[in-house]
Amino acid sequence: MSDANQYGYRAFQLGGFRFTRDEYFVHLAWPGGSHTMPADAFLRALIRDVAWNFFYGIVNFDGVFGTVNHYGTVDVFAGLYNAGYREKNKQHVENLKGDEVRARFEEILADWTNEDFDPFAAPEETGTPFGPKHGSNPKAINRKRLVASRMTGMKGDTPLRSDAAGNPVNRQFVDVPQDEPEVHAEPGFENEVHAYNFFAYVSRSDVTWNPSVCAAVKDSLICATTEEFMLPVIHGNDRVEWFVQLSDEIHWDIQDRDSGAPRARAVMKAGDVAAMPADIRHQGYSPKRSLLLVWENGDPTLPEKYASGKLKSNPVDF
Amino acid sequence: MAYQTKFGSLEHYEKGGIEVINDDPRNYVFSNVYEVASKAEPYEKIAVGKNLKYVLEAVRAEGTSPWYTASHDEAAIIMDGEVEIRLVKLDKALVAEDHEGTTMLEGNPDGKKMGYIVARRGHMALLPKGAAYQFHANKPGVILLQTIAGDLTVERWKDICQK
Description:
heterodimer; A: alpha+beta; 12-stranded antiparallel sheet; B: mainly beta; 9-stranded mixed sheet
C-alpha cells in the first residue's frame, strides 16, 4: 500500500487525532499532546469499542485515551478522565459523529490486525499482534454483537450455538453440562413455551469480555459473556449496571469514574451479585475463563438523569 | 491441562466481597444468591438486584408454588436444582397492562394448558406475558428471576448485603 510506513501499517486521521503504529506500539497524537499504547492493548480495546457501538458511557482504552458515547455523537478524548491531565488542563476532547468515528476505527482495525491475531480472543487462544504487517483477519474483526429482542433461541430471535453451527465448547468449559431442558409444548404453543441451556450457550462463546443480550424484559437486559484474562478497557459507567457471577471468579478494580482514584476492589465468586454505581469505572480480571451475567438497563433517558443528578449514582439505599 | 468450572449451589458456595479503599461497601449492594435463597422461605421473591423499576430476584424453589402471572415477559434462570415450570394461557388477562411485576393468583388459573418445562442448573426459561405459571421442585433449588419490582418483591437489603 502506497501510504504504509516501513512496517507496512497505514496512518489514520480522525478529527485532530492522528494514529500510527509500528511493530509493538500504537502512537497517538493530537494538538498539544501525544500518547503511546502497546498494540495488543489498543486493538483489544478498539474492537470492543467498535463492536459495542461505543457501549454505555465511557470506554477508556487506558488511563489517557478513550471515547464517551452520547448515542449519536462520540467524544474522542485524551486525558479527559485523568486527574493529572485535568489538573494542568492538558485534556483534549473532540465531539464527532458516531458513524464517522466507527468508520475510522473499523479502518484502523482492518489495517492493523494481523492475520493470526484475534483481538476478541483470550491471549492463550490467539497469535501475536506484533511485528511488521502480515496479512489481515477480517473474520475476527467483523463479528456482530448478538442482541436478543426477547430471548435467545426463540423463533426469529438470536440463534442458539452448537457444534454444527461452528460454536464448539471452549477449552476451559468442557465440564459445563450441555444438557437441554425438557420443553413440552402443547400444540399451538411451540413458540411460547421456550427454554434453553443458557450456561451451555455462553460456554460456546468464542470471544471474551463481549456481552450479548440473551433476555429482555422491556429495558431490562440480561447480557452474558465469557471472561478470561483481563477486560481490555476500563469501563466508565453512565448508569448503574450489575454483575452476577455465574461461575468461577473475577476480581474488579473500581475507581472514581472521573479522576481514576481507587475506590474499591470486588472479588466475585459464583452466585455473587454486585452493583457498579453510575459514578465509577471498573476493570475486571478473570484468572480462569468464567461465566458472567451483566445486567443492564437500556433506558435511553438514563445518562442525562444520572449526569444531571436527578438519579443517585448508587442503586439502593439501606 | 484439565480445567474445573466452579459453580455454586445451596449446599456449597463461596462468597467474595468488597474490599473498600475509599468508599462505602453499601454502594455495591453485594450479596450472593445462594446465601439469600438458603435463608428464604419457599418462593419468597427477594430482590438481589435493582435497577430503578427492574429487579433480579433470588427465589428458593421448594415444593409447589402458587400460580403467578405478569403483564410482561419474565425470565427464570435455574441456578441450582431441578424445577418444573407449568404454563397456562389465561382465558383473560388478570392484571392490567400497566401493572408491572409478578402477581400471585388465587387457586388454579382458567385457561388452556400451554405445556411444561423441566429445567436444571444453567437453564433459562421464558415466563411469557399473558400466561400463568407455577414452579415445582422436589428438592430445594434456586431461581434467579428477571422481572419488574411488584407487589411480591421483597427488599431486605440490610439483611442480605455487605455493610
